[in-house]
Amino acid sequence: MADVKKIATRESYGNALKDLAEEFPQLVVLDADLAAATKTGIFKKAYPDRHIDCGIAECNMMGVAAGLSLAGKIPFVSSFAMFAAGRAYEQVRNSVGYPALNVKIGATHAGITVGEDGATHQCNEDLALMRTIPGMVVMCPSDDIEAKAAVRAALEHQGPCYIRFGRAAVPVINDKPDYKFEIGKGTVVREGKDVTIVATGICVDSAIGAAEKLAADGIDAEVINICTIKPLDEELIIASAKKTGKVVTVEEHSVIGGLGSAVCDCLSEKLPTPVKKIGMQDIFGESGSAAALVEKYGLDAAGVYKSVKEFL
Amino acid sequence: MNNLELQKRANDVRKGIVTAVHSAKAGHPGGSLSAADVFTFLYFEEMNIDPKNPDMESRDRFVLSKGHTAPGLYSALANRGFFPVEDLKTLRKLGSYLQGHPCIHIPGVDMASGSLGQGISAAVGMALGFQMDGKSNRVYTLLGDGEIQEGQVWEAAMFAGFRKLDNLVVIVDNNNLQIDGAIDEVCSPYPIDKKFESFNFHVINADAHDFDSLRAAFDEAKATKGMPTCIVVKSVKGKGVSFMENNCAWHGTAPNDEQYAQAMADLDAIAADLEKAGEA
Asked: What's the pTM?
């Protein structure tokens, strides 16, 4: 097997912030004592005056970001997903969402691939929490290219955005000449006619791997990459569901409230279709290496393949 | 504006508060009345604002961190000319722009608030943004003395003190009452001044109902460089309406028709005294 370039999307995030700093002079970056881990340290090194370390106080940080946006800045607020979306949820809702402020939240270390730190730090609920806030754009990029594109799109978008990044290095899968990113648009990564696999984040790569295994069994799976969980590309999902008649969702997140729920919300109203949701099945994670956890919880290519086979 | 004029305005603001809350049959008169003189001083004297141009970039900002006292803010804004005083009667009614807690779309309102502890962080963020850009806008935020039980207040205070935000004024309305009783019986935040001092604020104690005291405090805040200022204003909850004063039952209760008539009679009597004082 040829060497595949791998990079963690948190790394892409830090690089994108630095690369876009000149083009967006109002951009400021906030962190809560995690700059080395969230990779906003990359931005801090290049633009120390525009990096604001708020200390270990995420609720205040979110409010400070709200205030900065009202003073004309475009703040990117960073912490682990558990603290950005979890601990500061009410600040995001009331101080950012309700007044519809131009605040961008870059949440890293999402999902179980946080790994060894264990369940307290493995946020499998952030997409659900952020989806419920009116006007919030929710994105979950699958690789380096998409992560950088999402950061740019968030800066160009007027209004609150939440972007989820991961800790572990993931393969680059979007390095295609015709690749373009748009908020609210999904992409068909692989065309097929027997089943639709809708995936987000690091699970897009697993879905592609599963589709290859399914092909060997004579099952022709369509794979859709949904980076923007909200607003969801309903048109794309409905068209694919109409073609295949069966849908599987894959996410490194609780099956309650995330991509799977978003897809079901859409299909149940507009094109009732059998759906199988792969993700964290209403359980907490645990310590272990990212690879071991992804395997245990059935989020790798083999796990997705197995679940799809059972579903069909 | 001289003190007598300010007192007259404050009395009008109080009438607006009582009228709005009575019309809404709900709302928070106690803490609105205790802060009425502070609202009046800020909007008629202290802040650089223009009711004709509420979004003016160079304006000073105000965040009502104790957002439940929206009737006080709305009445000050209406009496200052941001929107018609008559609209105060639409408070909390379906379809009205005067939401139960401050909403960012209301003319003159700089930030949504109401979930306690959050407004101060937004004010701190505004002050930081202006400081970073070398702008002269000043930022004011009003907190309740019960509100400072929220941990986020102290996260914000630590940050503001550390960042030396001398364009920021935090005002604590110390009326000593919260919903469940006296603040020092529920979960005492005293000593309030010493706490803010230890978070690297310049702290001033003032009388919430004395315009000389307020003027001196805000002038001192303006002259303070290198650190944010906290003004702890000692106030009377329900100030101006005899039966509401120092009674925590009036934290979040609207007067009925009879009580409303009594409240307006109290405020009319004050207005008459102020007129007489002006003629003397």
From this structure: 0.96
